[in-house]
Request: fold
Amino acid sequence: MSIRSAFSSFFEPELLEQERASLVDNLLVTMRTYSRVGAQGRIWERPGALAVYSGRPGAIFNSLLLTRPASGEAELAEIFAWANEHYAEAGARWSLWLVEHFVAHELLGRIGRLLSNYNVALQHRSIGMCVDEPTVLAPTRPAREFELRAIVDRPTRYDFSFVMSRAFATALPTYVDAYEGPHYWESGLQGYVAYLGARAVACACFRESKDAIGIYGVATLPEEQGRGIGETLLRRVMQLARGQTGKSRFVLESSERAAPLYRRIGFRPIARVAVYNELS
Reply:
């Protein structure tokens, strides 16, 4: 069964709409956080779109998002031109995080052509997922014992960057530049790192929004994957988030590879999210 047909099979239309709204709202709230990375960071807004500039030149932390369904190709072209003008003035590359149900199905195939004008190309697609049931927090399998530390100082911020860089095969300085400073972590995002002894092995974050908790930055060192550490860490972070906020709806964006982990916890697909990056 395709993901598209799974949406209509498993969800009432009204509930699906509500959960998609929660996903989009949390993503917008969380992306705003990146404007705090650098001293020059800022946010640009216009009807239908939000552009976040991190103060850094790389596309990975500079994101354009739609805030409502696009009316058509002309509006999309106008939004892309508007965003590119702002990022070009800042001397920065940019990315588009496209929640695909905001674009009519017949227009999705034209996004790449519109973005090619700015040397922006598809990087990957992910699955937007949601779970509302608090019972999913029960453990499903044993895992190695580890120490959980909140990200509250420079060493834990560095360790978060280290795990992310190893898990996603990205140069360590890219993440250190964004995450080692304190300001990014002072806007409501809460992160945690799992340690085996003195060694950081996994991480996860959460961000509260109006009616949901967003899960981000879930990563495990490649050599520690498949041992239950990531799942156990995620469950513990969800427990903490639920206890702090009183909310039981969780949303996230998952790769195809990671989706089975989230399904074990109870998450189900509700949307598709495509990420386009400006090429260097």
